[in-house]
Amino acid sequence: MVLNTKGVTLRLSNSSDFRTVQSSILSISVLGAFLSSDTAIIDFITIGFTEGMRFRTNSSNNTGVYTIRAVSPDGLNVLESTDFIVQDNSTTLSFTGYNMEEIGEVVSIDGPAGSVNVIDITNLGSTAREKLVGIQDEGQVTMEVLSNFTTGSTGINQWKLRDLRQAGTKSFFDIRFTDVPVTTVSEPSAYFFEGFVTNYANAVALDDAVKASIGLEISSQAHFMNGIAIV
Q1: H/E/C letters for each residue in the chain?
Q2: Does 85 score more than 90 pLDDT?
Q3: Is residue 9 part of a domain?
Q4: In this structure, is residue 42 part of a structural domain?
Q5: C-alpha distances in angstroms, 52 versus 40, 68, 101, 214?
Q6: Across residues 117-133, what is the average pLDDT?
Q7: Residue 71 covered by a domain
């Protein structure tokens, strides 16, 4: 399916937008649920986990990024349930959910632009060039926005990017496509990554809207999440 750019969104979650919990009473079931065996200690609703959050865990069996479908006091059910591998509560697990907020008035997005370093290990005994693959570099994401400094979510989230650049603080971002609708049982394909805001440059031209060019330096793996729809 060829993707349409209409409706593509870029979202962010700053350090005050996430919920995290860590305990030896947490486990992961085959049904795609993250479970608490004692809600007197951990109640996911009280802690602030909500539907639609992006979700990560330190589980050695489950290293991806997931989307919360439903929340109950003793569990989190996620859309990507078929990807899970069971892990019991013999290991101390941590679960972290990120509230993602749209950055409004985005005109264009370029990236992620990943690459990998190539290491030459050719020696005198080689009959051809020999090489190793080095560390992956997920590169950058650049965007252009129509500047909006109002008090609504569009203006607030554009200002958050300015604040993140000035503070040098990392944040989590996702780029969400439109191959699948956003519902309680479906989520479109997306990239999810952590990064720094490296530049925020305003552009003011005669007879044109005020714009800003914003650059993000990715500082983690850029997780690609396939669109999913539960039928």
Answers
A1: CCCCCCCCEEEEECCCCEEEEEECCEEECCCCEEEECCCCCCCHHHHCCCCCCEEEECCCCCCCCEEEEEEECCEEEECCHHHCCCECCCCCEEEEEECCEECCCEEEEECCCCEEEEEECCCCCCCCCCEEEEEEECCEEEEEEECCCCCCHHHHHHHHHHHHHHHCCCEEEEEECCCCCCECCEECCEEEEEEEEEEEEEECCCCCCCEEEEEEEECCCCEEECCEECC
A2: no
A3: no
A4: yes
A5: 24, 5, 11, 26
A6: 95
A7: yes
**Among 141-150, 153-162, 187-196, which range has the highest average pLDDT?**
187-196
The closest alpha carbon to 97, from 51, 29, 129, belongs to: 51
Tell me which residue range forms the domain holding 93: 18-99
Check whether 70 has a pLDDT greater than 80: yes
pLDDT surpasses 80 at 29: yes
For residue 7, is it within any domain? Answer: no
Closest CA to 171 of 11, 58, 50, 9: 11
Q: Are residues 35 and 132 in the same domain?
A: no
pLDDT band at 172 (very low <50, low <70, confident <90, very high): very high
Q: Which of 40, 71, 99 is the last residue of a domain?
A: 99
Mean per-residue pLDDT of the chain:
87
Which two three-digit tokens encode residue 230?
């539960």
For the chain, the domain total comes to 2
On whether both 90 and 118 belong to a single domain, the answer is: no
- Quote the pLDDT of residue 152: 61
Read off the pTM. 0.87
